[in-house]
Design brief:
The complex is a heterodimer. By secondary structure, chain A is α/β, with parallel strands linked by helices. Chain A has helices at about 40-50, 70-75, 90-105, 125-135, 150-160, 180-190, 205-210, 220-225, 230-250; strands at about 20, 25, 30, 55-60, 80-85, 110, 140-145, 165, 195, 215-220. In chain A, β6, α4 (about 125-135) and β7 form a beta-alpha-beta unit. Chain A is globular, with a radius of gyration of 23 Å. Chain B is mainly β. The chains are: A alpha/beta, B mainly beta. The interface of A and B includes residues 66 and 100 of A. β4 of chain A pairs antiparallel with β5 of chain B, so a sheet runs across the interface.
Chain lengths: ~280, ~70
């Protein structure tokens, strides 16, 4: 073991292991949401800058006038689609949407969203759990967007979800992680599946904090898509996720109320001239 | 006869299949990334060529957009 940091190889800044969801290893702990990008070209650049391997998409009625396809963008980037059920208010609608997504994209993976109202976009917990149970039964790999409620998250994991994705604050709010204590308790409560922060990231430090609190990954859309420079923000958040994971693995020092000297007092020279002149 | 596609009435020939309606919406656009439900039940793509539409059927034809 090298005695000095300067002799150590600085390896790639990644966490202790790849993110594994339902047996699939992902080389990046960042999942990119695609809502809000001004163009598909900008999205393509952000995908590359983010380093992500998993990218969300939504399903809506075919618009005959639509130009360009997001599916082609994902194919060209070599990333996997993660369809969502955005806009669903009931378990029934979310389940049907998931089935449509499975047929459209030939993937069993679904980001399950069941919201309670259009002002907060907060999850509707009973509908969410019901939808999760049905979809797990049907063989889906279910990644539910959930409240930062440790008990609900555990219920979702117990129901067979492949990950749980708690919010830090409301979707698109950029308010960061409003309750870091809940998030760390949630991480301790949910065993056996990854915890991925799914909403609220406003900037890179929020993503780093999520990882430092023990999250296994971060899903980020608006913070990147609506940044002044989305491509630069994609890279910043990519690095923040890596840095946060590394810091978590490295083990942070405990917080303390008073100072803890980093230099020992022992051996401090006596510099007071002893004539009473010194202050 | 009339069917309803994404909330709009569409006049089709009797005997028209799901595949025919998809082709109408996306001429030559291929089927990838598209899914169809009739009366809230998914019609798997493997059945599009054979599934003949009934009058007044309510189709939802969806595809991927940016989101999430």
């Amino acid at each position: 073991m090298p005695s000095r940091g300067a002799e150590m190889e600085v390896g790639p800044a990644i966490g202790p292991s790849p993110l594994t969801i339902a047996g699939r290893e992902l080389g990046s702990r960042l999942i990119l949401g695609t809502g809000g990008f001004a163009s598909l070209d900008l999205l393509a650049q952000a995908i590359e800058a983010s380093g992500t391997e998993l990218v969300t998409i939504a399903l809506r009625r075919v618009d005959p006038g639509q130009r360009g396809s997001i599916v082609d963008v994902l194919d060209a980037a070599g990333v996997e689609p993660l369809p969502n059920t955005a806009g669903c208010y009931t378990a029934r609608d979310a389940v049907t949407t998931a089935r449509l997504a499975r047929d459209a994209f030939e993937t069993d993976w679904i980001k399950l969203e069941v919201i309670g109202d259009d002002r907060t976009l907060l999850p509707d917990a009973p509908e969410l759990l019901e939808a999760a149970e049905i979809l797990v039964d049907e063989g889906f790999v279910v990644l539910p967007y959930t409240n930062d409620d440790p008990v609900l998250a555990r219920r979702l994991a117990d129901a067979g979800c492949a990950a749980v994705m708690p919010l830090g604050s409301p979707i698109g709010s950029g308010m960061g992680i409003r309750n870091p204590y809940n998030l760390s308790i949630l991480r301790e409560t949910v065993e056996g599946v990854p915890v991925i922060l799914d909403a609220g990231v406003g900037t890179a430090s929020d993503a780093a904090l999520a990882m430092e609190l023990g999250c296994d990954g971060v899903l980020c859309a608006s913070a990147i898509a609506r940044a002044r420079d989305p491509v630069a923000m994609a890279q910043a958040i990519r690095r923040a996720v890596q840095a946060g994971a590394q810091a978590r693995a490295a083990g942070r020092i405990p917080r303390r109320r008073y100072a803890e000297p980093s230099t020992v007092f022992e051996g401090t020279p006596e510099l007071d001239p002893g004539d009473g002149a010194a202050g | 006869m009339i069917v309803h596609v994404n909330g709009q009435p569409l006049d089709i020939e009797p005997g028209t299949t799901v595949a025919g309606v998809v082709e109408e919406l996306r001429p030559g656009g291929g089927r990838r990334g598209i899914a169809v439900a009739i009366d809230a039940e998914v019609v798997p793509r493997g059945q599009w060529d054979d599934h003949v539409l009934d009058a007044e059927a309510r189709l939802e034809v969806v595809n991927a957009i940016q989101g999430g």
